[in-house]
Structure prediction request, 472 residues.
Amino acid sequence: MKQNIKLTNIVRYVMIILVVAAGSCKKLQEDPKSIITPDTYYNTIDQVQSALVAAQSHLWDQFKGYQEDMFLFNQDDQITRGNLEIPEDYASTIWAAHYAALLNINQAIASLNKGLTNTGQEQMDQVMAQAKFLRAFNYFMLVREFGGVPLLTDETPDLFGTPVARSSIEEVYAQIIADFTAAIGKLPVSYEDPDRGLPTRDAAKGLLAKAYLTMATYPLNKTEYYANAAQLAGEIIADGNYSLVPDIKDLFSAATKYGPEMMWSFNSNNVDLGPDPRLWSDMQGFGTICAEPAWEQAYPPSPRKDAFIETELDGVKYYDLGDYWPGVHKFQYDSPEDIASNRSIVNMPIIRFADVLLIFAEADNMANGSPTPAAVDALNKVIDRGNGYVPNTADPLATLSMSKEEFDTKVIEERNYELCFEMDRWFDLVRKRILEEKTLPDYVINFTEDDYLWPIPSVDVRVNKLEQNPGY
Prediction:
């Protein structure tokens, strides 16, 4: 059932700020020579690209977006302090950040459709592809977090005065597919300057494959989409534009933040800093995003575990230090000087080649009803790299003799180990419907089926008459 709503307050404020910033002057004139509005401001390619940069800044910036609110994902089984007691307004800042980003993106798309000054069609097509990629990504995050959401596009008329329907999950995914597909057709394979963090064709393919994989699982359970996910992920593997970093300890480093494995990330640099390095470690008593001890102790010993998880300080294990938790080592690759000054240029990966291999392995197995040689090979590439290319009885390679169910369980566990703390585990627990199974025994009493969606922000429930998700 659709619910009519009006534009959320945060988007109103962003629109007002944009108009004021673009048109402010030293004193008012009764006979202005021109009026700058969001409809007239984006006339050049630089202005449009600035809107896309602003969109990303809503989602990833110091003390904003997912940098500020990564702790929300502690309801998974990896991060400390999660207890499945999810209150009202649990993720309202994330909701607001996405819709503020979407306002910038939709305005950019509308301006590109009208045409820009002194800009060739090829350049406009590429920037349009970047904009549609970003719009698809925003809705992909929203639909997995909140379910059906208001679907605002560049074609939504009169955002201030016209009620907008809350779209169904199926409708949101239809927009995601359309936008990622359009992006695939126009995005380049690579850029001369990868440091800008712009999306590539394979990044769009990888995220569309992930969207198809999610559609094949809960809540839509449209299993026919396994084949779509396997096809796209298989194309990325066959094209060979990306590869695993051979040594797991080099995966998260300044030298590899733009390749060969990293396909698209939230981008940090010395101008736009990443999260405070202290966020990741409780070895010094500061950490917010730390590993759950029970999860760390169940993680198979391996070079990957050593590279990803921090378990001791000056040779002493965290559990012998008192009230400490294991830290996240994979994102602590800054220079000692930066860490000492609380600066970071860490990127947060959104899609990387290891994820693509795991998407292919899961989707190909499920589409074919049993593991194929290609699926086994893709999964074992990730396992073998994690184990340092030596046999590991604690995390053995997959085999063709596995059943479909056994292989699927193995893939999800490898996703658990490989993609830890990358804001991915929560979505796997939801789409595989295993949240209750994986919740710690102390907190499983708090579990209900309603936990699979986050609450709609209370301001939208009250002001915009938006129906709340069940259980809140």
